Amino acid sequence: MVGFLPRLTIGPLAIGFPVVQAALSGYSDSAMRTIARRLGAPYTLAEVVLDEFLLKVRKTRVRRSWMHVSAEQHPVGGQLMGANPARFGPAARQLTAAGFDVIDINFGCPVRKVLGRCRGGFHLGQPEVALEVIARVRDGVPPAIPVTVKMRRGLDDDEENRHKFFTILDGAFARGVAAVTVHGRTVAQRYDGPSQWEFIRSVKQHAGPRTVLGSGDLFTAQDCLDMLRYTGVDGCTVARGAIGNPWIFSQARALAAGEPLPAPPSLWEQRTVIAEHYVLAEQLYGAERCLRPMRKFGIKYAQLHPDAVAVRDAFVRVREAGQWRDVLRTWYAEDRPGCHRVPDQVNPCSSAATGGQTG
User: Fold this and answer.
1) Cβ 278 vs Cβ 33: under 8 Å
2) Three-state secondary structure string covering 77-142
């Protein structure tokens, strides 16, 4: 392994390889997490769940699918979001009872509906409430369960919001948080513009030996290594770059070992993984209910196919269980070379933008 790479730990958990899968609303369900683990992710996070849902919804099929943790997923984190600090402790206990190894608190979601209900990134503007939430979760779960926090770099770039960010960061560690993940965009940015890796680097320098993970603009395996090298963080969390491209984790491992970037998965390799993913989703949701979430993945998987637009359209047209397998038989019958995904954008700190130099 390349010498600069750290060995990631989160509290008592030895994660090892420092490239992990982020929590992804609407995507990182049990099926996606299992596929990511099989292809090299050492740790994954479930999609965020509301405290109200955990405390009010009991013994429904939706709850069972949302809370499902398989044996091969450990270690796995559950992410929690809400508005009322008093609910966070009991909700966190529900996640630990379901088998999640880590409780992650979401202070990063920038969606307007979430902000309007005083959840997610809204808490970055109120440090006292944010720190109460953290204390409630830390006190609400056993000491052996690590608590982590996901943050953006602030509500916006106002100096007051920068001060609030560091107040929450330092207060979180003081209250026993094992790690903090920092996304390099503000809440106001949402997903527009580049993630400021320079800010993430300054956070790691400020945090010293405390565990910090970076997030934002990780669309290729090289991006992951670039972030680790440039910012000095202890790990990085791959979000949108892992949807439909779980091979990003095995590719990052190869690069970290000093090997050349592996060729993109061939169509038969893709077919095998997509079929496995579908079976897992079918087991999780049932034959009919799995179609809607799998169409979203099909659109992303299609980007690795040389006939990406036609394959995407074929997945979009799927309305019955048998049609999904028809797409695989039609478009993945011949074992042609696959394609590397083209990044959505290039971060100015990545080697793609600097001719191979990353500071």
Assistant:
1) no
2) EEEEECCCHHHHHHHHHHHHHHCCCEEEEEECCCCHHHHHCCCHHHHHHCHHHHHHHHHHHHHHCC
The pair phi, psi for residue 39, each rounded to 5°, is -105, 20
User: Does residue 359 belong to any structural domain of this protein?
Assistant: no
Question: Is residue 98 packed enough to be buried (19+ CB in 10 Å), middle (13-18) or exposed (0-12)?
Answer: middle
pLDDT tens, 51-106? 888 888 776 777 788 889 999 999 999 999 998 999 999 999 999 999 999 999 99
Beta carbons of 197 and 231 less than 8 angstroms apart: yes
Quick one: 82 and 170 in the same domain? yes
How far is CA 104 from each of CA 21, 46, 76, 81, 255, rounded to the nearest angstrom?
A: 13, 9, 10, 9, 28
Tokens of 341: 């995904």
| Rounded distance between C-alpha atoms, residue 85 and residue 114, angstroms | 16
Q: CA 134, 137, 143, 146 torsion: positive or negative?
A: negative
**pTM, to two decimals:** 0.92
Tokens at residue 279, please? 């079976």
Residue 19: which domain range?
8-256
CA dist 328 and 267 (Å) reads: 10
Looking at the 3D structure of the chain, how many domains does it have?
A: 2
| CA pair distance 138, 179, nearest whole angstrom | 12
C-alpha distances in angstroms, 88 versus 109, 131, 153, 252, 269?
16, 12, 23, 35, 42
**Which pair of tokens denotes residue 119?**
């959840």
Per-residue pLDDT tens for 322-349? 899 999 999 999 999 999 987 655 555 5
Q: Which helix (H) or strand (E) holds 304?
A: none
Q: Based on the fold, state whether residues 233 and 320 are members of the same structural domain.
A: no
∠ CA 177-182-188, rounded to 5°:
125
Task: Provide the annotated active-site residues.
Answer: 109
Whether residue 197 sits in one domain with residue 129: yes
C-alpha torsion angle, residues 26, 29, 31, 36 (rounded to 10): 90
- In a domain, residue 194? The reply is yes
Residue 96 in contact with residue 72, Cβ under 8 Å?
no
